[in-house]
Design brief:
Blueprint (H helix, E strand, L loop, with lengths): L5 H4 L5 H49 L4 H16 L13 H12 L12 H47 L26 H27 L3 H12 L18 H41 L5 H9 L10 H4 L27 H7 L1 H15 L21 H15 L1
Helix pairs in contact: 2-8, 5-8, 5-13, 6-7, 6-8
GO molecular function: metal ion binding; outward rectifier potassium channel activity; potassium ion leak channel activity
Membrane topology: Multi-pass membrane protein
Subcellular location: Cell membrane
């Protein structure tokens, strides 16, 4: 009882719950900060535009002797025509096959610009069913793309890592991948760092956006900043709809432009989707770091015991009891040196000793067997050195793919 701390009294509050609550608080603060900034930036412009519009409306009503209610009714009819896709200037048809294909592409990719929407009841009902399966299939495609891109990056970065080891003399010049890989401790379990993957994806996303913006500036007539803004809004599937490409009636080299537009949007959405998932892993690491900094601040006994005991004991009899309290997505290590072992004054049973050291005994037997057969292998692998952890959905795909890539080399 003397060594118990506040963490044991709050045992139901798991690490996942704490991370979820902390993330919710940070997102709420992030949204509040963003709303404050955008309100300060855009509110004066909105007020000035409203003032100009009211002045124009009254001047038009006075000059042409039209009452304001009649004029407002006419403008409401014009707004309804715009919602149906009718413009003053001639545009290409919205619902011919190319226009409909562009529309379904924005639906299944969850971009949803909003410049084209179904107006009939049958079209709206069909959209519900079509979007349900289309969005699910597209998300699966994005996950598979993420799996392929992570496999490619892991292969390239591991090849660079092997080349660096050869230059430093840690690998023989005639080294080949295969069974001999198990004898090289520096390559066993090696995975690329999450920060390196994030950097490569970020550079690729920026390069892709710059190339696409150059095309939109030349063809659509937008300035370069607006083109970059459109690329981010589109590639991130936010899809405001204030700027939409390929909406004019005709273009020079129209077929080539539409094909390039399709390729840029497809690659951009896949790349930004992968980048978002990698950034979410970094955010998760930051949350874990913040939780470790915040916990047990009010308990001086924890700090004294952790400072006094610098090395974790090999015997952890309480592992069987803690097994139900550790979530699947934890970091696989305890938060402090005092957690996961008994105090010196507590008794343990032989059953607990055997259960807690079952894995350690198996590893020891494997080491002895490999040493006896002449194939020593370093099994103390820090599989979490790269920063990728277990997760759900796309995060699990990245972790599993990296593990498979490392094991197959």
């Amino acid at each position: 009882a003397a060594g118990s701390c506040r963490r044991r009294r709050l045992a139901p509050l798991t690490q996942d719950t704490g991370r979820f609550l902390l993330l919710a608080v940070l997102i709420a603060a992030y949204l509040s900060a963003g709303a404050t900034v955008f309100s300060a930036l855009e509110s004066p412009s909105e007020a000035a535009a409203q003032l100009r519009w009211n002045r124009t409306l009254h001047n038009f009503s006075r000059i042409f002797n039209i009452s304001l209610p009649e004029l407002r009714a006419f403008l409401r009819s014009y707004e309804a025509a715009m919602a149906a896709g009718i413009r003053v200037d001639a545009l290409r048809p919205r619902w011919d096959f190319p226009g409909a294909f562009y529309f379904v592409g924005t639906v299944v990719s969850t971009i949803g610009f909003g410049m084209t929407t179904p107006a009939t009841v049958a079209g709206k009902v069909f959209l519900i069913v079509y979007g349900l399966f289309g969005c699910a299939g597209t998300i699966l495609f994005f996950n598979l793309f993420l799996e392929r891109i992570i496999s490619l990056l892991a292969f390239i970065m591991k090849a660079c890592h092997e080349r660096q080891l050869r230059r430093s003399g840690l690998l023989p010049p005639n080294f080949r991948r295969g069974p001999a890989m198990s004898g090289v401790g520096s390559l066993v379990g090696w995975k690329p760092s999450v920060y390196h993957v994030m950097l490569i994806l970020g550079i690729f996303a920026i390069t892709l956006s710059c190339c696409a913006s150059a095309m939109y500036t030349a063809v659509e007539g937008w300035n370069y900043v607006d083109s970059l803004y459109y690329c981010f809004v589109t590639f991130s599937t936010i899809g405001f709809g204030d700027l939409v490409s390929s909406q004019n009636a005709a273009y020079q080299n129209q077929g080539l432009y539409r094909f390039g537009n399709f390729i840029f949007i497809l690659m951009g959405v896949c790349c930004i989707y992968s980048l978002f998932n990698v950034i979410s892993i970094v955010i998760k690491q930051v949350l874990n770091w913040m939780l470790k900094k915040f916990e047990c601040r009010c308990c001086p006994k924890c700090h004294k015991s952790s400072a006094r005991l610098g090395r974790r004991n090999a015997i952890t009899p309480g592992a069987r009891l803690r097994r139900h309290n550790i979530s699947v997505d934890t970091d696989g290590q305890y938060d402090s040196d005092t957690e996961g072992r008994r105090l010196s004054g507590e008794m343990i049973s032989m059953r607990e000793l055997t259960a807690s050291n079952k894995v350690s005994l198996a590893i020891l037997q494997k080491q002895l067997s490999e040493t006896a057969n002449g194939y020593p292998r370093n099994v103390c692998i820090n599989t979490r050195q790269n920063g990728f952890s277990a997760g759900v959905g796309a995060l699990a795909i990245m972790n599993n793919r990296l593990a498979e890539t490392s094991d197959s080399r």
